[in-house]
Amino acid sequence: MKFKLHEKYTGLKDELLTVLNNFEKYESQFGTGKRNKVKVIPMGNETLVVKSFKIPNIINQVAYKFIRPSKAKRSFEYATKLKKLGVNTPNPVAYFEYYGLFGIKQSYYISEYLPCDLTYRELINQPDYPEHERILRAFTKFTNSLHSKGILFLDHSPGNTLIRKNEDGYTFYLVDLNRMIFKELTLDERIKNFSRLTPKREMIQVMSEEYAHLNQLEYAVVHKKMLAAREHFEEKFMRKKRLKKKFLGRK
Fold first, then answer.
1. Neighbour tally for 3: CB within 10 Å
2. Which of 101, 115, 136, 212 has its CA 20 to 30 A from that of 162?
């Protein structure tokens, strides 16, 4: 087993191990995913979110042991790096990795529980959500701040940003952190980062307006690129869906 705890939690190793040993006994507040399981677990005065990653295939079991960091380790390290860069994310607690004969088997990422008021998904499903456009523009500003800091959040999708209302507006927190790139970004990379968020053209228009304004770019250029990126994402998604259906049909 390998693990690392945030300095705030170094004295809680045994309690955390007890939680992991009894992980399956806890109820999942987020449903049971096919790949990963996420559970909110009380521990003393703390409430933690424990994410259990699916056991990887044999190739990745070896890779995560000898070649590249596991998803759990990346989540912990990226959360720590985001904090240093001034980007909000639930405070990292620890990661744990368990190994079998060939490589990594089970892995967990643990963070503090952060209640939120909404996610981006509510903006898609509820077009009449209070202050809808204000939140959308604030979210675009938040995304622009990530890009300005050289952060490419590859899982920038509707459920992966928690949104909390405060006295001055809204605060955004990234979750599901295991896929990120840190580098200087091109305009096309920045625009493409919006492609997974929404199919609604009216929302794309608002984000295009705000992003163009923030970066002193022509709205028409940004809007065209953002629409094209979304259309490419949709085509890729449908192509993958057709191939999967065809493959399953042969079975």
1. 19
2. 212
